[in-house]
Design a protein that fits this description.
Helices cover 25% and strands 26% of the residues. The chain is built from five helices and eleven strands. The strands form three sheets. It has a six-stranded antiparallel β-sheet, with no helix packed on it. The chain has a three-stranded mixed β-sheet with strand order 3-5-4, with helices on one face. A hairpin with a 2-residue loop joins strand 8 and strand 9.
Length: 223
C-alpha cells in the first residue's frame, strides 16, 4: 500500500504483519529537516518494502503520471539515507529534463551531488563513513556497492551481526557459502569482480567483492 509522501507514514510488510512506520525513524535525526524539504511533492510516493537481494531501492514512473520510490527496510540509517537521496536524485532528474537521459549519466550525477552536499557533515554521518562518502560523491557510480571502502565503513553500523565476511576477504581457491547454503569456490578476479564456481553443478558466476558470504571451514582441517 502506498500513501502520499506528505503524510510521512508508510506501510511496511514485515514478519507477515502490517505495521506503520515513519520514514523519519529510518534516517539519522539530524537529516530529517533536509529530507522533509526534498520529499515535499504530491507527485511522489515512497514505499518501504522487505529487503530485496538485487537492489537497495529503485525509482519508477507510475501509470497515473506520478512517481514512486521503493526502498528496502534496513536498520542501518546511514545506508538507508544514502539510498534515499540516490533515488530522490532520479526523481529530480525526471522533473528537470523532459528528454530521455542516461539513468546514471551526467545529469543524474550532477543532481545527486547537489542533493547530497548538505548532508555531508559529521552531525549526520560518522567520520569514517563521511570520509569515504565525500570521496564517493566526487564521481558517484550507479551503486554504492561498487565502492568497497564505503561499503566496509557502512558495515560497521549494521545493528545485527550476520556472522559473515566480505567476499574480498576470502582467499582464492577457498570455498564459501552464499545464500540458501550454496557452496562456491573463489577462483580468480576479473576486473572488479570475482569468478566463483558453484560446487554442486560446476557453473561459474561473477560476484561483487562486497558480497556477504560465510567462510566454509575445511572439515578435514585439524581443530
Amino acid at each position: 500500500m502506498v500513501i502520499s509522501i506528505l503524510t510521512v507514514k508508510f506501510y511496511l510488510f514485515q514478519f507477515q504483519i502490517h505495521k506503520v512506520h515513519s520514514l523519519f525513524d529510518l534516517i539519522p535525526a539530524n537529516s530529517i529537516e533536509l529530507i522533509t524539504d526534498l520529499i515535499n511533492s504530491e507527485n511522489l510516493s515512497i514505499k518501504i518494502v522487505k529487503t530485496r537481494k538485487t537492489k537497495h531501492g529503485d525509482f519508477r514512473y507510475l501509470k497515473d503520471g506520478k512517481f514512486q520510490i521503493t526502498l528496502n527496510h534496513i536498520d542501518n540509517k546511514f545506508r538507508f539515507l544514502i539510498t534515499l537521496v540516490h533515488e530522490l536524485a532520479h526523481f529530480k532528474v525526471s522533473q528537470s529534463f523532459k528528454y530521455r537521459v542516461n539513468p546514471h549519466g551526467f545529469e543524474w550525477k550532477k543532481i545527486y551531488k547537489n542533493l547530497m552536499l548538505p548532508f555531508l557533515n559529521n552531525k549526520i554521518f560518522p567520520d569514517d563513513v563521511l570520509r569515504h562518502l565525500a570521496f564517493h560523491m566526487i564521481n558517484p557510480p550507479a551503486t554504492t556497492d561498487s565502492d568497497i571502502n564505503l561499503v566496509v565503513a557502512l558495515q560497521n553500523y549494521e545493528l545485527n551481526d550476520d556472522n559473515k565476511s566480505f567476499l574480498f576477504e576470502v582467499a582464492l581457491k577457498d570455498s564459501f557459502i552464499y545464500q540458501e547454503n550454496k557452496v562456491f569456490i573463489k577462483l580468480h578476479k576479473r576486473r572488479k569482480r570475482y569468478i566463483c564456481k558453484n560446487l554442486s553443478n560446476g557453473q561459474k558466476f561473477l560476484f561483487s567483492p562486497v558480497a556477504r558470504v560465510k567462510i566454509k571451514i575445511n572439515e578435514n582441517s585439524s581443530s
